[in-house]
From TrEMBL:
Subcellular location: Nucleus, Nucleolus
Keyword DNA damage annotated: no
Family matches, as PANTHER family: NUCLEOLAR PROTEIN 11
Record flagged with keyword RNA-binding: no
Keywords annotated in UniProt: Activator, Nucleus, rRNA processing, Transcription, Transcription regulation
Residues in Nucleolar protein 11 C-terminal domain copies: 367-675
Name of the protein in its database record: NOL11 protein
């Protein structure tokens, strides 16, 4: 998620539908999916074609699969029956009983109690709600009826298991959260299902209202025994409804913190390993959090800080503003958030009572906001030098953010050397300092952009394309006056005083004019002209080094292709000519490797060449100036295919020669005749 790159993608056939969420088996590192209600699929990460994955057709419809870290996958059927995956795979067509009758499952969850998996699900029938608790390994089922609430009904459920007790939390339509305690009964062999139905009573846990505003919740998750998170829309009198993610302290009935979500959500909130997952607009947002020991002082203090005139408890943290810097660096007591999101859950701990007198990173950055350039850079260098190892990356990211913010406020300020030093000496990423490359593009800092492209693993494809377009559009004369690292090109592009490349005799792998003429009906141009075209680099030394940095940048083809289609035709032809030049240069070497530091690999060159042709093929076919380039590229590739095809034909003979060479005694003189058929 941090690199914004899809790692795998699998699709079912046309007409098939995935009917429940896909889960991961933590024990076998396999994915488990169900399509068309009954067809089970199991595959591993290296599997490419889902149609060839393991398939099992079950005898009943599946509602949900739950995967437990130490308990294995558990399958819940629509009829209320539960099976572990191991038992189910032993006989996929085994008969599945119906536990419920006329009821519809509304929610389910799986937990571990000791060594036993416990599955809990709720159902609805005619306005009544029921709770089932099952232990699949013990074939134990307990059914309860939920106490009815006048003029309100449950919207969503969540639960956790502690000390042999299930705590079921219910978010009701009256903007309240209720708690239901269900003891895990110890089953005995003599126990029989009772005719009498036990009714579960509930208690009010939390009212989702504060300062006259009411939160209309749509999703609820438990964070720990004292905190819950609620996703919903805030309805305040006389104000427009807005969606928020909120965290509440259930122990003291207080709102801890919140974040507005102006782009809207799907109404769903997931929580896994101290991370929130939610859909914000069209983006999957991941927010890390950390809850510590709850205390009344922390809860009241949070409310006290938030209740300032004309400021709602529901704070807006869309950008990293001054007050947010302080909130985001509360040492070990802060909630660490991803990218735009910053939250803080204050808590009582011994460490909090013994905080050092030194200022936090956020406070020091605030104090330096109006400092002079010299003081700012000196203090920031000290800050990075003293930063503890666990917080070093976050500290450096905020230092770069502080510098880029000043660049935006003051167009005349640009600490070029300082920024280049930070990028060169620290292992940064684009997500830590997202404004850095945009500022570098605005300032035409080609060297910094080159360093970022070579070092950042998570640059968005749009930014990569913007850099490529900027490099291609810049004149050679202007580039010669810019300091650019040319280590990646200096070893294979030799430049004379008149800026023309020195011609060297080359022998391509498997290429000759005679071979190609034998394969093609059309004749080659004069050899001297052809050699000159393919040997001379179409761009200067500096531009070649910058383009090599683009070739090193990680990308996903699906996301980059739409941007490359917008590349101007002349720039696309120039880029393809350079890629073709690199391709020929690589083919000169037996190991197809270019000399130099951070030189592009043959795979990178071929991938970009194919990507560019996919994006611009129609345009290039129509342009007369691209005709010769495409023809030469086609001939060269075809000649190499022919050459490697001929090598494959004699591969067996070469292996036999190698085997005989090992058997031959070095001191024995002999003449052998080998017949190659």
């Amino acid at each position: 998620i941090s690199d914004q790159k899809p790692l795998g993608c699998w699709s079912v056939k046309h007409g098939q539908i995935l009917t429940c969420p896909v889960v991961c088996n933590f024990e076998t590192h396999e994915y488990i999916a169900v399509h068309d209600d009954k067809v089970l699929r199991i595959w591993k990460n290296e599997d490419i074609n889902l149609d060839k994955a393991f398939k099992a057709t079950l005898s009943a419809d599946v509602y949900r699969i739950h995967s437990l870290p130490h308990g294995g996958p558990v399958v819940l059927f629509r009829g209320g029956a539960v099976r572990t995956l191991d038992v189910l795979l032993e006989a996929p067509q085994q008969e599945i009983e119906n536990v419920i009758s006329g009821e519809v499952i509304r929610w389910s969850g799986a937990f571990m109690e000791g060594q036993q998996p416990v599955l809990i699900f709720t159902t609805e029938k005619g306005g009544d709600f029921f709770v089932y608790v099952q232990k699949p390994k013990l074939s134990s089922v307990h059914r309860y009826k939920l106490e009815q609430q006048e003029s309100a009904k449950p919207l969503c459920f969540t639960a956790h298991v502690t000390n042999q007790t299930v705590t079921l939390l219910c978010l009701y339509s009256n903007d309240s959260v209720y708690q239901v305690l269900i003891p895990l009964q110890q089953d005995t062999e003599e126990e029989e299902e009772e005719e009498k139905e036990e009714i579960l009573s509930k208690s009010l846990l939390l009212n989702l209202s504060v300062s006259g505003a009411v939160l209309k919740g749509t999703s609820l998750v438990v964070l720990d025994k004292d905190h819950v998170a609620v996703l919903g829309s805030l309805a305040a009198p006389g104000k427009e409804r807005r969606e928020c993610l909120t965290i509440w302290n259930t122990k003291f009935q207080t709102l801890q913190t919140s974040k507005e979500l102006p782009l809207g959500t799907s109404g769903q909130l997931w929580c896994y390993e101290e991370k929130f997952f939610l859909i914000h607009g069209k983006v999957l947002t991941v927010i890390m959090y950390k809850c510590e020991t709850s205390s009344l002082a922390a809860a009241v203090g949070k409310l006290k800080d938030s209740q300032t005139p004309d400021v709602s408890l529901f704070l807006n943290w869309n950008t990293l503003e001054d007050e947010e810097l302080v909130v985001s660096f509360q040492s070990q007591e802060s909630v660490a958030l991803k990218a735009e999101s910053r939250m803080n859950l204050r808590s009582r701990s011994t460490a909090a009572e013994e905080q050092p007198a030194t200022l936090s990173v956020g406070q020091r950055l605030l104090n330096l906001k109006g400092a002079s350039t010299y003081v700012l850079e000196t203090e920031l260098k000290k800050l990075m030098a003293k930063a503890p190892t666990p917080d070093l990356q976050a500290t450096i990211g905020c230092v770069v953010t502080a510098l880029t913010d000043r660049c935006k406020r003051n167009p005349k300020y640009y600490p070029q050397n300082f920024l280049q030093e930070i990028v060169e000496t620290h292992n940064l990423s684009y997500s830590l300092c997202p404004d850095l490359m945009s500022v570098a593009l605005e300032k035409n800092d080609m060297h910094l952009l080159q360093m970022c492209l070579e070092r950042f693993p998570d640059i968005p494809e749009e930014v990569t394309y913007t850099c490529l377009k900027a490099f291609l559009s810049m004149s050679e004369a202007h580039l010669q006056s810019i300091d650019v690292d040319v280590d990646s090109v200096i070893c294979y592009i030799d430049v004379e005083m008149d800026d023309k490349e020195v011609k060297t005799e080359i022998v391509e792998n498997g290429f000759s004019a005679e071979m190609d003429q034998d394969m093609c009906d059309t004749k080659f141009p004069k050899e001297s002209h052809f050699r000159s075209e393919e040997e001379s680099c179409p761009v200067g030394l500096q531009k070649a080094a910058l383009l090599n940095a683009v070739l090193h940048s990680a990308y996903t083809e699906t996301f980059l292709l739409p941007h490359l289609k917008n590349l101007p035709a002349q720039q696309a032809i120039l880029f393809l000519r350079y890629l073709y030049y690199l391709y020929v240069k690589c083919s000169e070497k037996v190991n197809t490797t270019l000399p130099g530091i951070r030189s592009p690999t043959i795979n990178q060159i071929m991938d970009w060449m194919c990507l560019l042709l996919d994006a611009q093929f129609t345009v290039m076919v129509m342009l007369p100036e691209a005709k010769e380039l495409l023809s030469n590229l086609h001939k060269f590739v075809r000649a190499q295919v022919r050459f490697y095809s001929e090598l494959n034909k004699i591969e067996g003979s070469l292996q036999e020669l190698q085997r005989l060479n090992h058997l031959r005694e070095s001191q024995t003189y002999s003449i052998e005749v080998l017949e190659i058929i």
